[in-house]
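In the current project phase, work has continued on tokenised descriptions of protein folds. One protein thus recorded appears below exactly as we store it.

——
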Amino acid sequence: MNILFLSLSFSTSKHKSFYEDLLYEFQKRGNKVYVACANERSSDEERDGLYEKDGMSILRIRIGNITGNIGVIEKGISTIMIDSLFLKAIRKVYYDVKFDLIIYPTPPITLVNTITKIKKRTGAKTYLLLKDIFPQNAVDLALMQKHGLKGLIYKYFRRKEKKLYAISDYIGCMSPANVEYVLKHNPEVKRDIVEVCPNCIALPEVKPVFQKKGITDLRVKYNIPEDVKIFIYGGNLGKPQGIKFLVDCLDKEKNNEKVFFVIVGSGTEYSRIEDFIKKSQTGNTLLLKYLPKEEYKLLVNQCQIGMIFLDYRFQIPNFPSRLLSYMAAGMPVIVATDPNTDMGSIVEENGFGYKCLSNDVDGFSQAVNKIINSNIEEMGKNAWEYLVKNYTVSTAYNIIIRHLSK
């Protein structure tokens, strides 16, 4: 089969996304994979146009800037222009390819016209990987309003969202709570096309080491005491992660001699953590800039407990893919989230973590105490086993491909 994958970001020189891992699984099973992805004007990617990588055809399309420190107007215009730029490029380059399946994650929701035209031309089935429920997530963080003059922007994107659902033959959500959210807020969507197709990962070739203590490169390099438990947070440091709450938690634990926190990432709220470390002169927190994927994996493998943070205001049930990298390293997690996501319930019910609400600093401290007094090695094994059973690329592949074999 010919598979077309549409995405904003794909296979940068710095790291490999789980989308790429999933598409390699499609290729490994005998399918031909075609990719159309964006290349922002400010990107450091060297090449535009069509090229081959490991047997996949990749079309990198130059678009305006939509990420980073840019103005709202520039971001809005660039976002709206994505659809026409994608359609023009795909028509020019992949004009003679008959696609059997079109896969596309959110963000963005603005590729509606591109998907519609290609679907009509080729008769392909369409599969939406719903990773981001926009524009509601922007409303939750007060970045967008539903009413008044500013509400016109929300209504524009909400119409795009509904059109995207309408042209999708199947919608894969990250968790059961996501499925129920989509159906509740979009009653026109049929239940039988919405399913759980979770975030996925290619399993590491080597099984993780569950007993992580003693002298490591990380402890030596940063003078971390041998007898403390090392917690790690890795990923974006922006408003969706509720970084103010993270800083409050670090402040609460700054005199805890049993723990050490490693924060790795970049984003609009990076300076908030940096300022806290300087002013508090805490000795149990290390802040590092965002690392390439392989380097980050080496770092994670020397830590003992992962952390997830989500802003308390979210009404949509987010499920960050960062959880999978912790599980792949055989480590338990603390999940600090809004009350709507089911991530915390999943980790607690399956014995590989503890949850708290991301407006409850005392609750976070209680979770820290519980996990450092638990059998971390056993919880890490539970995390690994749950990952193998539920979050691999082969699992996601089988969920998607079964619809085409009917």
